[in-house]
Amino acid sequence: MGLKVYIDGTLYEKDQAKVSVFDHGLLYGDGVFEGIRAYAGRIFQLDAHMERLFNSAKAIALKIPFSQQELKQAIRNTLDTNGLKDAYIRVVVTRGVGTLGLDPNKCSGSSVIIITDTITLYPDELYEKGLEIVTVATMRNHPAALSPRIKSLNYLNNILAKIEAINAGCLEALMLNVDGLVAECTGDNIFIVRNGALLTPPETAGILKGITRDVVMDIARKEGIEVREENLTKSDLFTADECFLTGTAAEVIPVVKIDQRQIGPGTPGPITQRLRGLFKELTEKEE
Ligand SMILES: Cc1ncc(COP(=O)(O)O)c(C=O)c1O
Questions:
Q1: Is the dihedral of CA 227, 233, 234, 238 positive or negative?
Q2: CB of 45 shorter than 6 A to ligand 1
Q3: pTM for the whole thing?
Q4: What DSSP string runs through 229-278?
Q5: Any idea where the domains of the chain sit in the sequence?
């Protein structure tokens, strides 16, 4: 029996899980999503993901036809039906089937999709050796135009940056905002360590407020590490002692080279490794 995919209350075999070509999620990227992890059957930070999903939907005036509790239950059931313990869960809410025009009022009602699968974003060895990233020319969306806080189905901004990174032989791209300040990567938030303190761009830099980012800041504070959300320039990164990325799929991954410049000694730093270890421990015990 293959994987089953949830669409609007029904579980379909993977190859039968289909949406209409008139769905505004497809036609216009009109919808929102979340990427969530399950570790040993526990769904990590589910409440935080529900909160962000419902806020993303609210920001684009999209009504999710469930309460958070109901959606959580549907996610749990889909995971259990597929017998998955360690999984990546993709929750998608589209505007639903409409006409060829933009008007969302002509859509029949939002559609909810839950896909559960496994994921490997980066090869294991990069967690030991560290990742190389590159600053790209594609600027992060201006928050006044389309807020990066909304995890919408329109990821073109990130995809354009990803193409540049791949063309430069890197797996991830560093995106700056229109002020030339560090924002985030295409699917990850960025941190540096300087003089023992942890620094990361604030929300106002135009970033997605990552759930892994929040968890890592929390862990660091509990460890007595000073954490500051402040604007960073590229030169702050070049002169950092350590650098790492955070994300649901990536977890905590060290960065050792940016724009072909070595960060710190060019190996994953001690604070990065400590936080990575503590993050792993948390995924082994907490929901
Ligand atoms: C643009 C962007 N930034 C950051 C992140 C990391 O956020 P989280 O830790 O919630 O996965 C993601 C992934 O969700 C993302 O797509």
A1: negative
A2: no
A3: 0.97
A4: E----HHHHHT-SEEEEEETTTEEEEEEEETTEEPTTSS--HHHHHHHHH
A5: 4-117, 124-285
- Which amino acid, one-letter code, is at 9? G
Domain at 4-117: CATH code:
3.30.470.10
pLDDT at position 287: 73
- Cβ of 211 below 6 Å from ligand 1: yes
- H/E segment holding residue 183: strand 182-185
* Beta strands 172-176 and 131-135, pairing class: parallel
Token representation of residue 34:
């979340």
Closest protein CA for atom 1 of ligand 1: 187
Q: What's the CATH number of domain 124-285, 3.20.20.70, 3.40.1350.10, 3.20.10.10, 3.40.30.10?
A: 3.20.10.10
Ligand 1 near 248 CB (within 6 A): yes
Spell out the residues 6+ positions from residue 51 whose beta carbon is closer than 8 angstroms to its own: 68
Give the pLDDT of residue 41. 95
Mean pLDDT per block of 10 residues along the chain (287 residues) reads: 92 97 98 97 97 98 97 98 96 98 96 93 93 98 96 98 98 98 98 98 98 98 98 98 97 98 97 98 88
pLDDT value for 121: 79
CB 220 within 8 A of CB 187: no
Closest atom of ligand 1 relative to the 148 alpha carbon? 1
Residue among 188, 216, 253 to mutate when testing ligand 1 (max atoms within 8 A of CB): 188
Q: Does the beta carbon of 135 lie inside 6 Å of ligand 1?
A: no
Distance CA 30, CA 27 (A): 8
